[in-house]
Each structure stands twice: as C-alpha cells, then as structure tokens.
Amino acid sequence: MTDAINRTSKLPLYHQLYEILRGAIGRGEWKPGDMLPSELELTERYQVSRITVRQVLDMLAKEGLIYRQRGRGTFVAHPTVDQVLQRIVSFTDDMRRRGFEPSTRVLSAGLLPAPEEIGRKLLIPAGEELVRLQRLRLADDEPMTIEESYLIHRYCPGLLERDYRAEPLRELLERVYGIRWSRATQVIRAITASRELATLLAIRPNAAVLFIERVSYSQDNVPIEFLRLYHRGDRYALQNELRG
Amino acid sequence: MTDAINRTSKLPLYHQLYEILRGAIGRGEWKPGDMLPSELELTERYQVSRITVRQVLDMLAKEGLIYRQRGRGTFVAHPTVDQVLQRIVSFTDDMRRRGFEPSTRVLSAGLLPAPEEIGRKLLIPAGEELVRLQRLRLADDEPMTIEESYLIHRYCPGLLERDYRAEPLRELLERVYGIRWSRATQVIRAITASRELATLLAIRPNAAVLFIERVSYSQDNVPIEFLRLYHRGDRYALQNELRG
DNA sequence: TAGTGGTCTAGACCACAAA
DNA sequence: TTGTGGTCTAGACCACTAA
C-alpha cells in the first residue's frame, strides 16, 4: 500500500489504482473477509474522484475479488470453487478450497522439440525447444490429476536447473523470468483413461477422465505455456454459475 | 424500442434502461453486428445522463452481449462458443454456433414423484410431483446429447398437454407460465456411458461422456428445473477463457 | 446519528476512426 | 473535420447498517 498514483503516466488513473488494489489483495496484504478502506478514504489517499474509485471497486467486484455491502463497507471475497472456471488458479489453491491437502510428485522433466500440434497452439515452428514437465498431483495423498506442462524454453532458459520442485512453478516463472499469466484459453473434454494414464492415476483403464488443454499467455500477450490436465473423473468436478 | 423509462418507478434508471436494451437485443431487434444508437442518442432518447447510459452499456459489454469501439460505435456482439459456460444457452443455439444443424427426438415424457436427491436440489419435499422430459438431441442427424429435464409440476401445470415438441421448452415456459430463467448453477463431470446411455447416444458402452447437472432459477429466484445433460465425449467439448 | 455504499447529474477534455 | 467512445471531475441525495 505504499504505491502511489503517477499523474504524469499515460496509464489511466483507474488502471493504476486497479493494479495497486489488485496487487495488495493478491499478495495477501488484505485477507478474505478484511474490510477495504471506504470509498471516501480511497479518494483521499489516492487523490482521485469518487467515481474513479468506484469504477475500480466495481471492476474488482465483477471479477469476484471483493464484495460490497451498503451501509457496511467493502470486503475481500473468500475464494470459491467456481473461480477455477474464471481465473487461472494453481492446483494447490484449488485443492485447499476443496478441502484437500495437495502434494506433488515430478514424473519427468526434460527438453524436447515441439511437435507440430503444440507448435501451432504456441505460434512457434515445430521443432523449437520446449521444456516438458510431467507431474502427478495428489489430494490427501491420493492421485487426483496428471499435469503435463510444455513451456517455450527460449522464455525460461535453464528452468530445469532451478529448484522447480520446491517453489510453485508460477512463482518461479515470475521471480526469475518475469513472466506473469495475463489470460489463458482452454478446452474441456471427457475422455477415457489409457492403460498408462490409469496406472498413474490409480484408476481402472477406460475410467472417465476430465481432460483440459490450456494455452497460457504472458503479460505481453505471448503464448508461452501449453498445458494438459487429466483429472480423475470420480474425484474432480467443475462448478459454475450461469446467467439467464 | 417503444419502451420508455418510468421516472416514478422505484427501479433505478440504469436498471430500466438495461432491461430495455437487453430485451431489444434478446428479441433480435438489433442483430449481431448492428450498431446501437450512440451514447448521445441514448441520453436524448431516454432522458438520462451520459454516465447512466455508459453504466448500462458497460454492463452489457462485460456480459459479452455488445462490444464497443472508440471512434466507431457500439455493436451487438456475435455469440461465441465460450458463452455456453457463462449464460444459459439453448441446445439449438449452441449447435448452430458450432456449425451443426440441431434436431430433437422426445424419448419419454411423464409425471413422477420427486426422488429424494432431486427434491433436495429443488428445495421441495421428496414425492412432490415433477414433469420428466427425456430428449435425444442430434447434431447433423447424429446423436450428440441426452437431455433429462425435471420441472416442478406446480409451476407449469398441464405442460405435457401442450405442444412441447413444436415450440422450444424455454419459450413455452415463458409464454404460458411466465417463467424466465434468471440464473443457474451447474456441476460438470466426466463419466462413462452405461449400456443404456451408450445405445441412445450410439457410442460404445464405457465411452466417455461429459455430464452436467444443472439447477435453473426463475426470475423470482425460485429453483424450478433440474437438468441432466449427457454429452458425447467424442463430439462435444466446452471452451472458455480465463483471466490471470 | 454517523458512516457506508447506491444512484444520478452536468460538464469537460482526450483519443481514435472515418470521411 | 465530425462523431464516436474513454477518462475524469465536483457535488448531490438516497438507502442501508450499526452504534
């Protein structure tokens, strides 16, 4: 909260204030349930009009990060299971919200030339070097998900020499390579487990698997990661709310 | 567009204007790609301030119903496949967007007392009378989805005597019983097809099925319908975009 | 009663697109 | 040059919550 608004910047005021508040919530400086400063306080602290403050709070509320109560104040929202279909959420956070204790085993890690199909999705020529990281994700020590991550090596050279087992991949990418995910597109399907996948997930061959393929984009809107998620059909479900 | 804003109503102006514009788009009075009146025109036509007009247009834009281009104008958005995870979309619209020609066969229709499980989801006692409608949905004359709908009979008495084959169920519910869906909650899973389901969908037993259970709420926020959707895993996928 | 968010206004200047 | 949406301001009154 030491950030201030830069009046000479070309960035709109509301955008700067959004980043300030968003960052403070993201870093946990305000925790779920905490009350944010009132609109009046924010106008004074950042020297912007109330309309501009409200524009930012409305954005955050629409995204589900805060909620507002007339006569009471504005509060940091408790994360919900819904959010996994709206935001990029780590496996760890997702499992904690579902009431599981997450853990991870690295199955394989290495470099490989991009197959045609993945090259197309990441907008790179086939053959360009990728980092491939295959992990088994457990919930309460039982297999839940296989996660296959393909990263363009050019953007994170030497990743495999880092301690990607100890630190969440997402934090490592941000800290060392300055990569933050701004958005992602994904496709969700139902498939049946191959013999190999079944063994890893400790399910019967041909059991149902919720399969997600995702392309994640950096803050510069460059596609950097292609991800395959194989969720156990008997343990994992997605939830969301629809408007009429 | 003959609607006008009622200054004596307790409803906020922006809410009334939202309903007017939303309705006109929903009824197809403006079609995808059409330009909406400019902000200035809307302020004049409805005698509200520009900020109020913008509040409404921003809401519609956030929901993906319109898009805005500085210097050009505001336009009705083309529906996307994404929307099926955000809005309540009919099978017919969904298939057309995916480039298929939809059709329907009614498999069964009748009344039954609510099983315990469905009663819980619809907040009614077990045993209350439900309408059950089971339909096979086809895309380009090939099975795509089995749709099992359970409606509380009390809210749509005599539904089965109506011509629910000719008219979309949604329109019939609105026209005859005044029921509009305001929102819904759903759970998405991967399952394998039972022998019976496999026969209906023309797939192998144990093939993967994308299974969705949904509770839909009327404009009065009353749960009225419980829906089970069994989508063929080899033909149907969901797509969406995530924020970082 | 004091403090909070909800709604609404008039008016200004800017950036961008198209003619 | 004209018309569009984008950003921002000060100020007003209302509705709700909690003390």
Fold topology:
The structure is a homodimer of 244-residue chains.
Chain A: H1 13-26, H2 39-46, H3 50-62, E1 66-69, E2 73-76, H4 91-97, E3 102-113, H5 116-122, E4 129-139, E5 142-152, H6 169-177, E6 181-192, H7 195-201, E7 208-218, E8 223-232, E9 238-243
Antiparallel strand pairs in A: 1-2, 3-4, 4-5, 5-8, 6-7, 7-8
Helix pairs in contact in A: 1-3, 2-3
The first copy, chain A, binds a DNA duplex (19 and 19 nucleotides) through residues 12-14, 38-40, 48-52, 54-55, 57, 68-74.
Give the helix tally of chain A. 7
Overall geometry of chain A comes to globular
Q: Which two chains share the most extensive interface?
A: A-B, 39 and 39 residues
Q: What distance lies between the first and last C-alpha atoms of chain A, to the nearest angstrom?
A: 38 Å
How many individual β-strands of chain A?
A: 9
